[in-house]
Amino acid sequence: MVYIEPTARIILEDGTEYEGTAFGHTNSAAGEIVFYTGTADIPRLLSDPALRGMILVLSTPGVGAAGIPQNNIDESGLETLFESARVQAAGLVLPYYSAETEHITAYKTLDKWMKKYQIPGISDVDTRALVQRLREKGTMRAKILVSNTREVSFASIPFGAELPSHQQIIHYGSGEKKLILVDCGVRSSAVRSLLSPGITVRRVPWNYDYTGEEFDGIFISGGNSDPSFYRETSSILKNALTFEKPVFATGHGAAILAAAAGALPFHMARGHRSSSVPCIDLETGRCHITAQNHGYGIYEDSLPPGWETLFLNNMDNSIEGFTGKKGLFCGVLFNPEGNPGPRDTVFLYNRFLDLVRNGGLSS
C-alpha cells in the first residue's frame, strides 16, 4: 500500500489561498497569521508563549532538518532548550519541510513533536508570496484546512484571545530581596535571566493581586494577547506603581505596563518578529540588535508626563522601549534575553536587578 501525504490549504481572511502538503497533526486549525524573519531556533520559537494561538509563517528552507532536542530541565525546573513545556503556535506554514533528521541533538522529528501537541503544519507553500501578501495587507486571521478533516472557521476568533492558564505560584531562589514575576506568558529564558544571588523570584498568575504583600521589585512578562484583555493585570500594576518599587517589563508585558501608566497600546499591522531587529538606545546613541516577537506597539505621544522613550526601532522609527520615574520603571517590547537571537541588551536585566538589590534609585 502506497502512503499518499494529505493535502492542505492555508486560507487568509481576505480570501487569498495557497495549497500545499500537510504534516504534523492531521487536523484543521485557525488563528492570527504572523511571519518571522531571520534564522529561527525552531524549538525555542515554536514553544514561545508569545505565539500562543497564532499560525506562524517561515520563509527559510529546510525547517525540520535539525529535529527537536530532548526537553531537559535545569535545577530550577526550567526548560533549557525550550521557552515553555509545549508547542505554543496554532499552526506552522513552510516552503519546504525536511522529514529526514540526522542532527546529533535530535531526539524526535518536528513532525512528531507537532503531532504530540495536535498542531497542524503545511509545507510546499510559496511563503515568499504569502509574506509579501501579509506585508501588503497586514496581519489577519487565517486557517489551515487539511483534506478530509473537519472545517474550521476564523470568523469568530478575536486577535490574541488566548490568555495564559498558569495559576500556580512558584518560587525560585532564597534571597532576601523579593521579586514578583507576573506571568502573562513568560519565557523560560526570561525567568532564568532574573535568577540572581540575593533575590527570591515569586512567579504569580497574570490576575494575582500582590499589592498586599512585601516585595522589592516587579517583573511583567511578555505574552501573546491584546493588552486590553489584561485589565486586571493593568489595574493591579497601576496601584503597585504608586509604591515606587523598581518595575521592568518585556515583550507584551511592556504594553501592559504602558497601559497601566496611562499610555495607549495598539495592534500593529505587521508586528515585529525576528532574530535581528536594530534598535537605537536614545541614552547612548548606540544601535543594539534585538530579538523580537510582539504584535502590539505603543503610541509614543500617549506616554504620560514623566515617562519618556528609551529605544526606537531603526527600521520604522516605532517606540521599542520607555522609562518612567527617571528609570525606576522600564519597559521594552523586545526580548533582552535573546534566545533565539543576540544578547546585546541583556544589560537591562542587570540594571533592573541592581535596582532591586539597592532598594530603588540612589538619591
Structure explained in plain terms:
The chain is of the alpha/beta class. The protein is 17% helix and 31% strand. It folds into two domains: 7-146, Glucose Oxidase, domain 1; 170-358, Class I glutamine amidotransferase (GATase) domain (Rossmann fold, 3-Layer(aba) Sandwich), CATH 3.40.50. It contains seven helices and 17 strands. The strands form two sheets. A ten-stranded mixed sheet has the order 8-10-9-11-12-17-16-15-13-14, with helices on both faces. A seven-stranded mixed barrel has the order 1-2-6-5-4-3-7. Helix 5 packs across helix 6 (252-261). The longest helix is centred in the last third of the chain and has 12 residues, at 347-358.
Short structural summary:
The chain is of the alpha/beta class. It has helices spanning about 40-45, 110-115, 125-135, 190-195, 230-240, 250-260, 345-360, and strands spanning about 5-10, 15-25, 30-35, 55-60, 90-95, 120-125, 140-145, 170, 175-185, 200-205, 215-220, 245-250, 265-280, 285-300, 305-315, 320-325, 330.
Shape: globular
Give the CATH level 1 class of the largest domain: Alpha Beta
Helix content: 10-25%
CATH homologous superfamily heading of the largest domain: Class I glutamine amidotransferase (GATase) domain
Quaternary structure of the protein: single chain
Q: Classify the beta-strand content into a percent band.
A: 25-35%
So, CATH architecture of the largest domain? 3-Layer(aba) Sandwich
CATH topology of the largest domain: Rossmann fold
Give the rounded overall mean pLDDT: 92
Strand order of the largest sheet: 8-10-9-11-12-17-16-15-13-14
Number of strands: 17
In the residues, how many domains can be counted?
A: 2
C-alpha-based Rg, rounded = 20 Å
Flag low-confidence runs: none
| Helix/strand order, N-terminal first | EEEHEEHEHEEEHEEHEHEEEEEH
Q: Termini distance? A: 78 Å
Helix count? 7
Please give the largest β-sheet: 10 strands, mixed
Q: What is the structural class?
A: alpha/beta
